[in-house]
Amino acid sequence: MLYALARPLLFALDAERAHELTLGLADAPLRFRLLRVPRAPGAPVRVMGLDFPNAVGLAAGLDKNAEYVDALAQLGFGFLEVGTVTPRPQPGNPRPRLFRLPRAQALINRMGFNNVGLDAFLENLARASFRGVLGINIGKNADTPIERAADDYALCLERVYPRASYVTVNVSSPNTQNLRALQEDRALGALLSRLAALRDQLAERHGRRVPLALKVAPELEAAQLQGIADAVRRHRIDAVIATNTSLSREGVGSLPHAAEAGGLSGAPIRARATATLAALASALKGEAALIGVGGILRGSDAAEKLAAGASLVQLYTGLVYRGPVLVAECVTSARASR
C-alpha cells in the first residue's frame, strides 16, 4: 500500500535516481523492522544442496554493492543475490542509463557493471547481519581484455567465496563489450573449467563446497543452449539462471525510450525467458538446477517459470512496478504450484 502511494512520485524522477532514493529511504525502517511488509507463509525448498525458506529471490542488479542486504531481507525473499561485482571499482556507463517503459511494464538499462569493487563490496557484506541464502554475482571489469576475462572471474570467486551461499558467473550482460562472447562453446568451456577447478581448491581450503550458477542471455538459439547445457554438465556447474536482459525490442515497439541502447527487462521478455528456461530444462534433464527470471509481474508468472522447469525464481523489474507485495504473491503462487 505504501509503495502504491509513493510510486507516482518516484516515477516522476529519473529512474536511477528513484532507485537510489527508494533504497536509501527504506533502508533504516526495514532494517530495524519499523516498516512491516506482509509475508506469505514459508514454503521451504532444497536446491543446489542449500535450504531456501521459499523459492522467490531477489535478482542481481538491484543491490549491486551489497549496501542494503539487511533491509532487503525484510521483504520476505527466500534468498538474495547481490552484485554484479568486479575486481576493481568502475563507474559504469554515463547517465542516463536506466529507463522506464511504463506502458509495457518494462525497463531498459545500460548500467555497465557500475560497482564499488571487491574490497568495498566485501566490507559492506561484513557489516551485514543477514545469514540467509546469499548469492554473489561476479563479472569482469570493462577494461579487462576478453582473453583475460577468466582472471577477473577467478579473482572474484576466490575473494567472495567465504561469504557466498552460491556464486553466479555473469557472462550475459549486454552492457559490457564482448561479454556475451563468453557464452560461446570454447570460451565458456575454458572459463567454467578454470572456475570449477578453483572451486574444488577453495572447497578444500574452506571446508565447504559453494555452488556455482551460470547466468545466460534470452536470445540463444537451440544449438547454443545445448552447448551451454553440455558445458554445465561437464564442469559440474550447479545451476543456470535463465535469463538476463534482452537486446530485442519486441513488445515495446515505438514506446518512449524503446530506442535506447541496453538490455530490456520486464513483461515483454517473459515469454522468451520462459522458453529459454524450458529448453534448458529439456537439455539438462535435472542435472543442474534452474532459476527462472525475466518478466515476473504477478504470482502466475512465477508459477509459469516453475512449471517450465525452474526450482527457484528471481524478481527485479516487477518490484519496480508492483513493489514488495509482489514477493508474497509469488511465494503464495510458488507454494500452490508444488
Mean pLDDT: 96
Number of helices: 11
For the record, what CATH class applies?
A: Alpha Beta
Which regions have little confidence, pLDDT < 50, spanning 5+ residues?
Answer: none
> What is the H level of CATH, i.e. the homologous superfamily?
Aldolase class I
Secondary-structure element pattern, one letter each? HHEEEHEEEHEHEHEHEEHEHEHH
| Helix fraction by DSSP (H/I, runs of at least 4) | 25-40%
Query: Count the strands?
Result: 13
| Total domains | 1
How far apart are the termini?
28 Å
- As laid out across the biggest beta sheet, the strand order is 3-4-7-8-9-10-12-13
| Overall form | globular
Under the CATH scheme, the architecture is Alpha-Beta Barrel
Structural class: alpha/beta
| Relative strand content | 15-25%
Q: What's the alpha carbon Rg, rounded to whole Å?
A: 18 Å
* CATH topology assignment: TIM Barrel
Main β sheet profile: 8 strands, parallel, barrel
3D architecture notes:
The protein is an alpha/beta fold and 338 residues long. It has a single domain (2-337), classed as TIM Barrel. Helix content is 39%, strand content 17%. It has helices at residues 2-11, 15-31, 69-72, 117-127, 149-160, 185-206, 222-234, 270-284, 299-307, 317-322, 325-337, and strands at residues 45-47, 50-52, 56-58, 79-85, 98-101, 106-109, 134-138, 166-170, 212-216, 239-242, 263-266, 289-293, 312-315. The protein has an 8-stranded parallel β-barrel with strand order 3-4-7-8-9-10-12-13, surrounded by 5 helices. It has a 3-stranded antiparallel β-sheet with strand order 5-6-11, with no helix packed on it. Helix 3 (69-72) links the parallel strand 3 and strand 4. It starts with a helix and ends with a helix. The model has no long low-confidence stretch (mean pLDDT 96).
